[in-house]
Amino acid sequence: MSDIKKWFAYAVFIMAVLIFLVYYLFPSEFVERYIIFKAGQFNPNLKVSIGRVFPTFPPGLRFDTISLEYLDALVLDAEEIRVVPRLASFFGPKWTIRFNLKAHGGILNGRAEIIAKNDDRQFDIKAKIFGMQLADIPAVRNLTAFKLSGVLRADIIYKNAQEIDNPIRASVEILNCELQPLKPLSIKDRLTFKQIEAVLNIRNYRIDIEHCNFKGNQVDGTVSGFGVLKDPFNKSIIELSGILNPHHLFFKHLSGDLQASIFNDIKSKIGDVSISIKGPIENPAFNFH
User: Fold this and answer.
1) In 40-182, beta strands by DSSP E
2) What is the pLDDT of residues 234-286, one digit of tens each?
3) In this predicted structure, what is the pLDDT of residue 1?
4) Contact between residue 210 and residue 224 where contact means Cβ atoms under 8 Å apart
5) Greatest alpha-carbon span in the chain
6) Rounded Cα gap, residues 95 and 93, in angstroms
């Protein structure tokens, strides 16, 4: 019995030493540099900053204070990201990694499957966003054409096959949204929307909007079109068209100078109104007909 206790004590001591070596001698700076290098290799316009990296149990990594920049514009600030691989999958051709991100009052959960074929790697990534506050996301906060707030939910899918680079597909929902255009609509007060629902396809610099449906207190409608990201972000281009169903309250939110002549005829109509939005995101042109 004493031998068993002795070997058990040895095992506990060895495990304690290993934990010490892993957690206190972990090469966090090397891991940070490697990830930053790989991000730049994946997309030269992508910049990642990492506060610290820690090993976790179950085996994985925790990243604290992550910031993501695209085209030199801050897109995301994350408090924490946890990455946990499925170790058994590393013995097969398909690697599975789960990740969890906390940022802007919400979370992003997802799974990535990586298949290595010769020198080529295929990715199958699925993620869900819950409860993120739009007003806190830097990419939204830095918009100059309008102020936007609400609660974000999204399903994101990205899958690339050999010689085929599929777009990132996102099904997005925004609840309790408030939109305050600055120009050129000259809306006095915020427009409020109970729900905005959209499907986006993102490839490189282009974002295709299959549809965007919105239901609000002042106006309902649907639009579709595309956007092209540029550097700086405020110079990005949008081109949208669709149908509005303005409620009576909608016209009370319009100022009387810039758009009065455009809406003189619309006020007398009942039903839908066509709209097109074109130009740089910082100052797009609105046309109604």
Assistant:
1) 46-56, 60-70, 73-85, 94-103, 106-117, 120-133, 146-159, 168-181
2) 788 999 999 988 877 666 655 554 455 445 555 555 567 888 889 887 777 87
3) 47
4) yes
5) 96
6) 7
Nearest partner of 193 among 169, 155, 223, judged by Cα = 223
Average pLDDT over residues 2-6: 56
Q: What is the separation, in whole angstroms, between the first and last Cα of the chain?
A: 91
Q: How far apart are CA 203 and CA 226, in angstroms?
A: 11
User: Which token pair is 168?
Assistant: 């990132």
Determine whether 44 is exposed, middle or buried from the number of CB atoms within 10 Å of its CB (0-12, 13-18, 19+): exposed
Q: How many helices (H) and strands (E) does the chain have?
A: 5, 14
**Whether 136 contacts 105, CB under 8 Å:** yes
- In 3-state terms, what secondary structure has residue 276? strand
Structure tokens given for 281? 């995101």
Question: What is residue 197's predicted lDDT score, i.e. its pLDDT?
Answer: 96
Average pLDDT score over residue span 128-155: 86
User: Of 12-26, 91-105, 107-121, 174-188, which gets the smallest average pLDDT?
Assistant: 12-26
pTM (2 decimals)? 0.77
Q: How many CA atoms lie within 13 A of 75 on its CB side?
A: 13
For residue 52 the two structure tokens come to 């610290």
